[in-house]
User: Fold this.
Amino acid sequence: MPESAGKLYIVATPIGNLDDLSPRARQILDTVDAVLCEDTRHSGQMFARFGITTRRISFHEHNEEGRAASIVERLVAGESFALVSDAGTPLISDPGYRLLAAVRAADLPVSPVPGPCAAIAGLSVAGLPTDRFCFEGFLPPRAAARRKRLAALVSEPRTLVFYESGRRVADTLSDMIGAFGERRPATLARELTKAFESIYRGNLGDLGARSRADPDFSRGEIVLVVAGNDDAAMPQATAGLEQIVTLLVRELPASRAARIAAAITGCKRAEAYAIAAKLDRGESGGEGPV
Ligand code: SAM
Assistant:
């Protein structure tokens, strides 16, 4: 690395509340030669608020590849840059990876200026295990690909963190219920740090029902945090329970079916009975008791 080389700073910016810009982030944005912005106009609002006048250069997923080589040349020549995205931490479901790969290949210095990240903010308030988690970012927009992705996550024991838009969240929740079962604990965190911040905790069934009933629920930016598959707990056992109760209730009264299903699966008898009674009343949505 040339001794005179400049540095690339990866600068996290607010995900809603501009007061979350750190003093160091502000100072770096003020003093680098130029700031690479996912959207120069969007970042311009933050710059105006803090009186930052540094030159902004457009840097987004469509020009990243082309721009990376010239940024590397300018770093070698001694210029310093900051990379920012529209919100949160660059490269986390945001552009920058190809630039970093080029900068790394050239052995040039990079330094993080950490700060807001929606995934971490959502996880921090979810009330679900945080000792191990797995960031899944955005699910595919098309239903078939989304369901395939979710099916691959059914046995994942770590807490799962997803990004989602309000527009798609009802469909996503419905597919998650299909894959993980409606009793899987989950938290939906929307508009974090903004005026209409709201955090809903429950299970996928609760969140799915709310997404259909409450129009506010599907507005704005969303982080969905879903409990991992705790082997000892329900997801697979629950799927098994429903299947077993469905079979037993065809042959036996609901209470006996529930008792046997609970003994087989280790689930609570009341839980098994609730399913059996529902099937008895013909509320299964599929074939009823024979
Ligand atoms: N790099 C960003 C970060 O570190 O948070 C994430 C960028 S990604 C393109 C945008 C997604 O992040 C949104 O669709 C939403 O899922 C999530 N997100 C961003 N801001 C949010 C907020 N204030 N509240 C909840 N989710 C948010």
